[in-house]
Amino acid sequence: MAYRVATITLNPAYDLLGFCPKVELGDVNLVQTNALLAAGKGINVAKVLTDLDVKLTVGGFLGKENRDGFDLLFESLGVIDKFQTIEGQTRINVKLTEQNSEVTDLNFSGFTVSDQDWQKFVTSSLEWLKDIDMVAISGSLPAGVSFSNFTKWMEQVKKICPKIVFDSSREALVAGLKANPWLIKPNDKELEMWVGRKLPTLPEIKAAAMELINGGVENVVISLGSKGALWVTKNEAWLAKPPKCKVISTVGAGDSMVGGLMYGLLTNQSIKDTLIFASSVAALSVEQAGVGISDRQAVNNMLEKIEIIAG
Ligand SMILES: Nc1ncnc2c1ncn2[C@@H]1O[C@H](COP(=O)(O)OP(=O)(O)OP(=O)(O)O)[C@@H](O)[C@H]1O
Ligand SMILES: [Mg+2]
User: How many angstroms separate the first and last alpha carbons of the chain?
Assistant: First the structure.
């Protein structure tokens, strides 16, 4: 369906996934290649929305030297590509799984965004976002983009596209929150970092969410991994608990949840139903290796297994 929706990933990556029974540091390791995927948090969200038949636009930065994998992905997804191509390479993140299921991440550095690149991005994004009603801004910032410039850009985006769904971590999360986005989806650890204290209980998590709401964020959805997710607004709060799932990989569970939240809101579902839907999409995502919805019926079946409680 044609919704005016977009996702922006400023710092995408190729994920190189491999299996090595035991990683020996300082030695030669033979690795079985499992996949090389064009990825990034906003791109993962776009995969989920595409699988739900939402036509959307994707944007951000990509390196000129290795754009092909992303071009192929965008073509297969049928998304409108507004990515700005810049000098250099998009970074590569190596994820090595060992025999004991432990995963080691090696996140390499990629391109650096110049001042000129950033200015061009600000001008063009503020133009094309005029035609968008809901935009997800996801992930970290690439080298060259300052936190203060990011905050300023978010503030400008908010003026033309008020429904910003924001999902990031660490300093980028702090910088983005200064613009008071419409909906945020930190996990409990990210919320703890923002408030600067531990949040061991649900009432404490809710109190921290209220601080953000009082500051001007309308929707705070805190994801709690296998414990579920808590959605807090000024007027209501809901806790959704997933059933026990057979975990294959939790990578991208947060992105799946963001995709599900956007879908529920785009299709005018209530906050409660949207949280149930997003929790179903996220629960199914942990039972598979990558992101995306391969079986729509499975999402429907999962809806009934989500426990929903007024928070
Ligand atoms: N083991 C699990 N079983 C069932 N559902 C899960 C599990 N782990 C995560 N989920 C679902 O996925 C949602 C998001 O997971 P999580 O809180 O781990 O996100 P995250 O830390 O932001 O992940 P990401 O690595 O994608 O950024 C949870 O709120 C929950 O609904
Ligand atoms: Mg996350």
Answer: 33
